[in-house]
């Protein structure tokens, strides 16, 4: 009898709660803008988050609220952004395009490895096992987690085991930033062409034994462009509001700070030694 009474009580309680929820949903529900479905239909639907909102639904609500402009969607084509602007009765707007860039130039031909790694061929796994023996503790591990994470085919591994970003295909979704266990990717404004291709925080030439293109914290770039570059924890930090001129890379003795052209190819300064070797360095 007690079991039946308990079951009946629970059933009655469930019925009361369900009724309260139904009533609350009816009287407390917020009316949804009828244009929301139309706005979402004009967005690409990738839900990549590159716009800074939680997926296309989040951006659609921000557009309807006047908190964002159609230019916020870096995946949409110009025609799609124009269609959004026409639907909303607003301007397309302007936004500084961002791209992903890798803070490492230490490919297999210039960076040493101190052992043969036989584990799972992923950066995430290698990072847990002394970096698969790579001499530089801050360098790219080269197993392509970033390439596999990119849904836009904007990243490809080159012959030296470094990821190359195609700036034309990159939408700054940030998946590569999340995938890299060494935090080597950063989303930066595309017009910023000077780039620090290193994350080594140690000062001095000793690091060159492990990577021939590492930053040695000589600070020559900061001396040549003091309004645009400052040294922080042994590395050059660039001022985005005042991008450094190309001349800032000229006296870098290793080529750790580079100039990127329209295709994303890195150009070193005049003082940097030419990298001739194409074969991997022998295991030390």
Can you give a write-up of this model?
There is one protein chain. The protein contains eight helices and nine strands. The protein has helices spanning 2-28, 36-41, 55-64, 78-88, 123-127, 145-149, 175-179, 220-224, and strands spanning 98-102, 155-157, 163-165, 185-189, 194-196, 229-232, 235-238, 257-260, 266-267. It has a three-stranded antiparallel sheet, with no helix packed on it. Strands 1-4 form a two-stranded antiparallel sheet. The mean pLDDT is 90.
Entry summary:
With 284 residues, the protein is α+β, with helices and mostly antiparallel strands. Helices cover 26% and strands 12% of the residues. The radius of gyration is 26 Å and the shape is extended.
Q: Please identify the oligomeric state.
A: single chain
Low-confidence stretches: none
The neighbouring-strand order within the major sheet is 5-8-9
Largest sheet: 3 strands, antiparallel
Index terms:
12% strand; 9 strands; alpha+beta; 284 residues; 3-stranded antiparallel beta sheet; single chain
Topology at a glance:
Elements lengths: L1 H27 L7 H6 L13 H10 L13 H11 L9 E5 L20 H5 L17 H5 L5 E3 L5 E3 L9 H5 L5 E5 L4 E3 L23 H5 L4 E4 L2 E4 L18 E4 L5 E2 L17
Antiparallel strand pairs: 1-4, 2-3, 5-8, 6-7, 8-9
């Amino acid at each position: 009898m007690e079991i039946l009474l308990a079951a009946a009580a629970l059933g009655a309680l469930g019925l009361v709660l369900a009724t309260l929820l139904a009533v609350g949903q009816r009287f407390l529900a917020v009316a949804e803008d009828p244009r929301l479905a139309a706005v979402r239909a004009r967005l690409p639907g990738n839900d990549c988050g590159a716009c800074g909102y939680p997926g296309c639904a989040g951006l659609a609500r921000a557009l309807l609220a006047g908190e964002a402009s159609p230019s916020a969607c870096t995946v949409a084509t110009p025609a799609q952004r124009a269609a959004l602007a026409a639907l909303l009765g607003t301007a397309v707007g302007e936004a500084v395009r961002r791209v992903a860039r890798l803070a490492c130039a230490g490919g297999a031909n210039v960076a040493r490895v101190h052992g043969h790694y036989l584990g799972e061929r992923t950066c995430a796994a290698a990072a847990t096992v002394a970096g698969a023996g790579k001499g530089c503790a801050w360098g790219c591990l080269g197993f392509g987690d970033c390439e596999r994470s990119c849904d836009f085919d904007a990243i490809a591994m080159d012959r030296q085991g470094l990821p190359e970003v195609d700036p034309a295909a990159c939408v700054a979704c940030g998946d590569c930033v999340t995938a890299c266990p060494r935090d080597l990717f950063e989303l930066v404004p595309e017009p910023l062409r000077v780039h620090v291709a290193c994350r080594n925080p140690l000062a001095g030439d000793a690091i060159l034994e492990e990577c021939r293109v590492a930053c040695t914290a000589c600070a020559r770039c900061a001396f040549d462009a003091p309004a645009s570059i400052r040294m922080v924890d042994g590395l050059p930090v660039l001022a985005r509001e005042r991008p450094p001129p190309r001349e800032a890379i000229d006296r870098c003795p290793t080529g750790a700070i580079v100039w990127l052209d329209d295709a994303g190819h890195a150009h070193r300064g005049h003082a940097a030694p030419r990298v001739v070797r194409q074969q991997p360095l022998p295991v030390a």
